[in-house]
């Protein structure tokens, strides 16, 4: 999916469509016109922390200046937006922050991820795992098992080495540089199989490949006969918060399926990222259809 430069803010954040829908669209979908327009104004302002003038904001959402001003005045009375007199710009208000903070407090990663994990298991036919970093290891938070024979070897609460697991390598690849270097200072490069990467140079090369394609592959590096394809869930700062993977026997996860499964996992990771309130990195946009 190519990035439309008109849909990217000066901060480099990809924008949702903030144009107001037509009256016909609103009517057919049962939406309230004034509310829809007000929310579009809020969505537009959220991408411009420096604020927008009335004319720029109205143009952004496709409203007449007079209509935009009436809606903004209402939102201002409820403190969802504020007017910066010094710069003559409209900005997000404190009430919008409070509502957003309530979502942050209430979100639960495993709960948000589970429907996506269920869907990924159905389309891939393989076990789906959700895991997070814990120092130099990965701990599994949740799992949706396939109904097929030969399932995953580790369930929720299980731990695997970061350098030998798909989720571990994916999280390490996209971790901030300072976090990655701390992990390299504490990792235990023990070989678990003949395929385990135990050289720092080789692992760094593998991480660069992961960043380029967007997903990691555990090619019998944790256990003989088991393969895993994994990608990363990002938070609102575009930092890795968790990893999602599909895992199964090499008899089912063949070389010819790796690209297909990688695309499935990437899409699932992007879906969870968005549902979690995170930001999907622009460099991975082309990887998700």
Description:
It is a single chain. Helices cover 42% and strands 17% of the residues. The protein is elongated, with a radius of gyration of 22 Å. Strands 5-4-3-8-7-6 form a six-stranded antiparallel beta sheet, with helices on both faces. Mean pLDDT is 86; it is low at 1-16. It folds into two domains: 5-105, Arc Repressor Mutant, subunit A (Orthogonal Bundle), CATH 1.10.10; 107-287, GAF domain (Beta-Lactamase), CATH 3.30.450. α2 (33-46) packs across α4 (65-77), α6 runs antiparallel to α10 and α7 (166-174) packs across α9. The chain is of the alpha+beta class and 289 residues long. It has helices spanning 23-29, 33-46, 54-61, 65-77, 94-106, 109-124, 166-174, 177-186, 200-213, 258-275, and strands spanning 81-84, 89-92, 127-134, 137-144, 159-161, 216-219, 226-234, 240-249. The relative contact order is 0.11. The chain starts with 22 loop residues before the first helix and ends in a 14-residue tail after the last helix. A hairpin with a 6-residue loop joins β6 (216-219) and β7.
């Amino acid at each position: 999916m190519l990035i439309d430069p008109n849909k990217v803010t000066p901060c480099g954040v990809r924008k949702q469509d903030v144009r107001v829908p037509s009256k016909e669209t609103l009517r057919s979908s049962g939406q309230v016109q004034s509310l829809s327009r007000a929310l579009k104004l809020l969505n537009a302002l959220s991408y411009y922390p420096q604020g927008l003038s009335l004319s720029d904001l109205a143009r952004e959402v496709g409203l007449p200046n007079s209509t935009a001003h009436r809606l903004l005045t209402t939102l201002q009375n409820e403190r969802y937006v504020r007017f910066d007199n010094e710069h003559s710009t409209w900005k997000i208000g404190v009430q919008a922050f409070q509502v957003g903070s309530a979502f942050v407090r209430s979100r639960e990663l495993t709960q948000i991820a589970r429907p996506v994990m269920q869907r990924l298991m159905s389309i891939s036919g393989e076990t789906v795992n959700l895991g997070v970093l814990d120092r130099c290891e990965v701990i599994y938070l949740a799992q949706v098992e396939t109904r097929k024979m030969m399932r995953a070897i580790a369930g929720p609460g299980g731990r695997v080495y970061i350098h030998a697991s798909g989720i571990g390598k994916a999280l390490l690849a996209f971790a901030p540089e300072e976090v990655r270097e701390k992990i390299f200072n504490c990792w235990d490069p023990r070989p678990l199989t003949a395929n385990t990467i135990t050289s720092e140079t080789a692992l760094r090369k593998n991480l660069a490949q992961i960043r380029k394609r967007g997903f990691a592959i555990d090619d019998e590096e944790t256990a003989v006969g088991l393969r895993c394809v994994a990608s990363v869930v990002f938070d609102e700062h575009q930092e890795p918060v968790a990893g999602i993977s599909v895992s199964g026997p090499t008899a089912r996860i063949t070389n010819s399926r790796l690209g297909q499964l990688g695309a499935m996992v990437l899409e699932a990771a992007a879906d969870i990222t968005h549902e979690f309130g995170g930001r999907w990195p622009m460099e991975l946009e082309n990887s998700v259809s």
